[in-house]
Specification:
The complex is a heterotrimer.
Chain A lengths: L1 H22 L3 H21 L3 H26 L8 H27 L17 H8 L4 H23 L25
Helix pairs in contact in A: 1-2, 2-3
Chain B lengths: L17 H15 L11 H19 L5 E3 L4 E3 L1 H27 L5 H18 L4 H19 L6 H32 L4 H9 L7 H17 L8 H8 L2 H26 L7 H21 L4 H22 L1 H28 L16 H4 L1 H15 L5 H15 L3 H27 L13 H19 L1 H13 L3
Antiparallel strand pairs in B: 1-2
Helix pairs in contact in B: 1-2, 1-4, 2-3, 2-4, 3-4, 3-10, 3-13, 3-18, 3-19, 4-5, 4-10, 5-6, 5-10, 6-8, 6-9, 8-10, 9-10, 9-12, 10-12, 10-13, 11-12, 11-17, 12-13, 12-16, 12-17, 13-15, 13-16, 13-18, 13-19, 15-17, 15-18, 16-18, 18-19
Chain C lengths: L4 H24 L6 H4 L19 H24 L1 H28 L7
Classes of the chains: A mainly alpha, B mainly alpha, C mainly alpha.
């Protein structure tokens, strides 16, 4: 009884804040509404007894990813839309068209019965983090270890792209104004 | 779905993971070597990368006849894995040789370049060697992340930045499609393991289920992007043109082969050959890819862009083999991929050598008169162009023969006719390069060639293989057939 | 659901405190607006230009590195919960994972990516 009610509350918050994300003019406000959306999604996960996903949703999405969103908004210094009316109208038109196409596809798909896969085994009543841990570190060990290489590549990549300052060398052929706030990359 | 298994020490066959371990260790060693100062212009990173690639190729070659499925199918060591691991190591090694001098003269000589190249190669191997969609996705991301950064490695060049941004944004979307497809397939079948998926499908009338079909199509979209098939090819010319040419060579061969490898494994293992619903879609994509690639290539004056569209067209020929389906189609695709990789590496390899210092010459007209002034460059480029155009006695011809033969065997006459017509069209622009080499006078300053021993070695290897497989195609085809038969 | 009642109480108190403070301050604060008072407070200096300025790319580097190590921490969480059952095997695989990331960390230190200057 209480679970459907909680779901309804979280879902309503999620839908309203998601709408606010796209309806707000100020990008920072949009980003903050996105945080609300993420948090209410985390609430839905909790209602579904997916505590780990809920936790990850808060830590990674609402925490880390949103910080990055806000940073990016601030790098670009987004003020107002600079596009002319025609561009916006065209974009809106295409957007509506795509939206309706997706809606139509959804309706067409949901009219067929969606045969479900094999039923999931009954999980522990609460606290599936341990179950995830046991699976992740036994059956999914290999992709887990490859993930560490993935994170390593990301580290190297971000240093190359965003920083790339090396031992002093002849100045690189950086055209003035090509990059702001970053030193030109020297020759090794 | 089994209940949570009790974790236990898996009896690991470490040797089967040899290539993966060697590449990871090599990449990390390169990073740690940053602490040991090297002389300016030292070739340490390149030498170490070559060594790493050689070790991983050797590891997989020594155990080429063994068959293992470890980590519950997360990593499989079978003929398919061996074929593609050797192919990716070779592509990586040729790319390192081509980069050796190129990165130095264009001022991007950093250890990170080789680290990313090794990691991207690792990602390709993981993609080809896994029987699980999760691992395939992680491998794909590892490859893509490395490539995004490599494409934008010339930070001082706006074109390179633009290329990286376009590739990254569209690639991220494609990854999203792929992941969504995996999620739907998991929802429909209850597993991400390809073998379990096949078992589930064999006893379930799920084939026409919307969730399953939608998942499969989203998966196809994700892979079509990675192999640059029309209409998911938009990023290709810009990314190939803006990237450092040595990176273009690497990704045009490696990323395409890896995308097809994963697609083939999913198709053959999980879906029991290419699913019937995919037939018309794959045919349409193949026709579009061949035609758009070749016709647009006709209009290009920039050599890198022309080769980019040509690589799109070649994805179309491989798709024809996939439409034919089954093990024959797969082995024809494998054969074509190996052949394509080396002739394309050779063609881009020559482009890396054009120009001196930071200057790069990438226009078709820059080749004017080069055939007589630099006979080796002229000869090699001519052979690669003939091979890409599919004219005997080169490997490219044999590749097309096998693909079209398999397609005819499957009764795909219209597709073969379109393919042959496309090959004829393609000859026009490939021959334009040869005409420029031998029959045009250079306008303005003639193009200089940056000679370097490693690049020459790479050129000779690709040239030899392109000619050898043109004459002795049988061995490679047998190898391709054996590796498809041995799918675990 | 019963386990979440403390969380719910916590949320209620948090929201209530925030809402109460805002409400209280809007009630008891005397409102006298003028142009100088509405301008941004810059330690008594007359503000120049917009408060929104382009931020240096250095922040981006820090943000991405933060996410990467954040993800590492997320992986540690289910591992820690399942640690007793995983035993030595779990310890070894997590050590491998962390060693790879530690090499990345050492590399970042060497590249002075974490220094601000």
């Amino acid at each position: 009884m209480i679970a459907p009610a909680l779901f309804a509350v979280f879902a309503a918050i999620a839908v309203v804040s998601a709408l606010s994300v796209i309806l707000q003019r100020n990008p920072v406000t949009s980003a903050l509404f996105l945080v609300v959306t993420f948090c209410s999604l985390a609430g839905i996960y909790l209602v579904l007894h997916a505590e780990f996903i809920g936790m990850v949703q808060v830590i990674v999405y609402a925490g880390a990813i949103m910080v990055l969103f806000l940073f990016v908004i601030m790098y670009l210094n987004l003020g107002r839309d600079i596009e002319t009316g025609l561009q916006i109208a065209l974009r809106r038109g295409v957007g509506w068209l795509m939206g309706f196409a997706l809606l139509a596809a959804g309706v067409a798909l949901f009219r067929h019965p969606w045969a479900a896969g094999p039923p999931a085994p009954p999980g522990p009543p609460v606290g599936n983090t341990q179950a995830i841990g046991l699976l992740l570190y036994s059956r999914y060990l290999f992709p887990f270890e490859v993930t560490s290489m993935l994170l390593l590549v990301a580290m190297v990549g971000v240093v190359v792209i965003a920083r790339g300052r090396r031992a002093p060398g002849p100045a690189a052929d950086l055209p003035p104004g090509a990059a702001t706030g970053a030193e030109p990359r020297g020759d090794a | 779905m089994t209940p949570v298994p009790a974790p236990q020490l898996i009896a690991l066959d470490w040797w089967a993971l040899g290539a993966v371990i060697a590449l990871s260790a090599g990449a990390m060693l390169l990073l740690l070597l940053e602490f040991v100062p090297a002389k300016p212009g030292s070739s340490r990173a390149a030498v170490l990368s070559l060594l790493t690639l050689a070790i991983s190729a050797a590891a997989v070659f020594v155990a080429r006849d063994a068959r293992r499925s470890i980590f519950d199918g997360m990593f499989v060591h079978d003929g398919f894995t061996v074929f593609f691991t050797l192919l990716f190591c070779a592509i990586g090694a040729v790319s390192v040789l081509l980069s050796w001098d190129y990165v130095r003269r264009t001022g991007i000589h950093h250890a990170e370049y080789y680290v990313l190249l090794l990691c991207a190669t690792l990602g390709m191997i993981v993609m080809a060697a896994s029987n699980d969609l999760i691992t395939i996705f992680v491998g794909l991301e590892l490859m893509s992340l490395g490539l995004y950064v490599l494409v934008g490695f010339r930070r001082a060049h706006l074109e390179s930045n633009e290329a990286a941004l376009k590739y990254f944004l569209l690639g991220a979307f494609a990854s999203g499609f792929l992941l969504y497809g995996i999620a739907l397939l998991y929802g429909a079948t209850g597993t991400t393991s390809l073998t379990r998926m096949a078992a589930f499908l064999s006893e379930s009338p799920l084939r026409g289920n919307p969730m399953f079909v939608a998942g499969g199509l989203l998966l196809l979209t994700g892979f079509a992007f990675k192999v640059a098939a029309v209409p998911f090819h938009m990023w290709t010319p810009d990314a190939y043109d803006g990237a450092p040419t040595s990176v273009t060579a690497f990704m045009s061969a490696g990323a395409k082969a890896a995308g097809f490898a994963a697609l083939l494994r999913v198709g053959l293992t999980a879906l029991g050959g290419m699913p019937a619903e995919w037939g018309p879609i794959l045919s349409a994509i193949a026709i579009l890819t061949m035609t758009v690639g070749n016709v647009t290539a006709l209009l290009q004056t920039n050599l890198k862009r022309m080769l980019a569209y040509s690589s799109i067209a070649h994805a179309g020929y491989i798709l024809v083999a996939l439409v034919a389906g089954g093990r024959d189609g797969a082995s024809a695709a494998l054969f074509y991929l190996a052949v394509y990789s080396f002739m394309n590496l050779g063609a881009f390899g020559i482009v890396t050598m054009l120009g001196r210092g930071r200057e790069e010459r990438v226009l078709v007209s820059d080749l004017a008169g080069l055939g007589f002034r630099q006979p080796l460059v002229g000869l090699a480029m001519t052979v690669f162009m003939i091979s890409l155009g599919g004219i005997p006695p080169t490997a490219g011809f044999m590749g097309k023969v096998y693909v079209f033969k398999v397609a005819l065997g499957a009764g795909l006459v219209p597709l073969v006719i379109i393919g042959v017509l496309n090959s004829v069209v393609s000859v026009f622009y490939y021959l334009r390069v040869t005409v420029a080499l031998y029959m045009q006078e250079p306008q303005g300053e003639p193009t200089e060639v940056s000679w370097a021993a490693p690049a020459v070695v790479a050129l000779l290897v690709t040239l030899a293989l392109t000619l050898w497989w043109g004459i002795q195609a049988h061995d490679l085809l047998l190898e391709a057939q054996r590796s498809v038969m041995g799918l675990l | 659901m019963r386990e979440y009642i403390p969380v719910l109480l916590f949320l209620l108190v948090a929201f209530g405190f925030a809402a109460g403070t805002i409400a209280l301050s809007s009630i008891i604060v005397p409102l006298r607006r003028n142009a100088v008072k509405n301008s941004a407070y810059e330690c008594g200096v007359v503000p120049m230009g917009d408060a929104r300025q382009r931020v240096a790319i250095k922040f981006y580097l820090v943000a991405v590195l933060f996410i990467l190590f954040d993800i590492e921490a997320v992986f540690l969480y289910p591992w820690a919960v399942a640690f007793r059952q995983l035993g030595l095997y779990g310890l070894v695989e997590m050590a491998l994972f962390i060693v790879v990331l530690f090499i990345g960390y050492v590399y970042l230190l060497k590249k002075r990516a974490l220094e601000w200057e």
